[in-house]
Amino acid sequence: MNPYSHALPPRLPAADRAREVRGMSEPPNIPPGVNPDRSSVARVYGHLIGGKDAYGIDLGVVEQIQDVLPDAAAAARENRNFMIRMCRFLAFNEGVRQYIDCGSGLPTTENVHQVVQRADPDAKVVYVDYDPVVITHCRALLGGNDNIECLQADFFDPLSILDDSMVQQHLNWNEPIAVLFLLALHHHTGDRGVPAAVTKEFIDRLPSGSYLAITHLLDPHDGSEDDATVRALLDTLDKSRMDNVTARTAAEIKDLFHGLDLVPPGPGREGEITLVGDWWPDGPLLGEPTVARRIVACGIARKPWCDTKVARDE
């Protein structure tokens, strides 16, 4: 049973659904820059992991997604749990103290800064999102923390982040930085080479010893049940009022790292692209994962230290 099904609007005929969700739970004053006729990726994802900031149009998209992927909320939570484990690894094991979270989404429980600042209260985070509602919430909820900054920018224009004066001043560009693209890069549906160009720009500009982490909708490309589900999901999103999504094979996701060595996803394993729930899980994986848990993949890789710089623990 979907634990969030109680929050969905009553089921309506398809012809009436768009009219119903248009005005269902819109705020009395829609923030500047928000299109009330378009659903927000951040609000839909936030709702799937238990957030309360979705508008009526977003709830309609959630219902459409759950028509083809009933346990979509489980996939969203798997992605969030990966983020927590990955940030623990970076902060506690690798000593990374600086983070750029691209496509951060609405603040909720266990955000990046909450995980990494347990290792070091002075760890710095820049949250990046193009959605003005996300940035408004970010600044309102996190403004009391001097080590956190929120930037409204489009990460598909990497220079809008890398050359931003606040980002340049907030972070120390002589020390490692972790850049996170969690369920983010698959929201580009034009030229399939753009996401790789984005990650290349970041990799080239990041200090040595920095990390790149990616989660992405997986294209099984094998004619399986999972493959059919991904096709149905892509078709549903293409017809919805939310930004489209593109799936990639494991090999294509690996290409986004441009040859960086991937961190092994478990003991005794080679570095590889794997399912988010399979990357250093907190406990044993009992039973077979559902389809929703089998179609989100991840990887994390480190930019090598320059020959002239010695790693802090080497």
Would you give an account of this structure?
There is one protein chain. With 314 residues, the protein is an alpha/beta fold. The protein has a domain at 72-264 and 288-302: Rossmann fold, CATH 3.40.50.150. The protein has helices at 14-22, 41-48, 56-68, 72-93, 112-119, 132-142, 159-162, 165-170, 194-205, 225-239, 250-255; strands spanning 98-102, 124-129, 148-152, 178-182, 211-217, 261-262, 274-275, 296-302. Strands 1, 2, 3, 4, 5, 6, 7 and 8 form an 8-stranded mixed beta sheet that branches. The longest helix is centred in the first third of the chain and has 22 residues, at 72-93. It is globular and about 45 Å long. The N and C termini lie far apart (49 Å).
Note the topology.
Layout: H1 14-22, H2 41-48, H3 56-68, H4 72-93, E1 98-102, H5 112-119, E2 124-129, H6 132-142, E3 148-152, H7 159-162, H8 165-170, E4 178-182, H9 194-205, E5 211-217, H10 225-239, H11 250-255, E6 261-262, E7 274-275, E8 296-302
Parallel strand pairs: 1-2, 1-4, 2-3, 4-5
Antiparallel strand pairs: 5-8, 6-8, 7-8
Helix pairs in contact: 1-3, 2-3, 3-10, 4-5
Short account of what is shown:
With 314 residues, the chain is an alpha/beta fold. The chain is 36% helix and 12% strand. It has a domain of 208 residues: Rossmann fold, CATH 3.40.50.150.
Global morphology: globular
Helix content: 25-40%
Taking all Cα atoms into account, the compactness measure Rg is 19 Å
Low-confidence stretches: 1-26
Notable features of this structure?
314 residues, alpha/beta, Rossmann fold, eight-stranded mixed β-sheet, 11 helices, 8 strands, 36% helix, 12% strand, globular, disordered N terminus
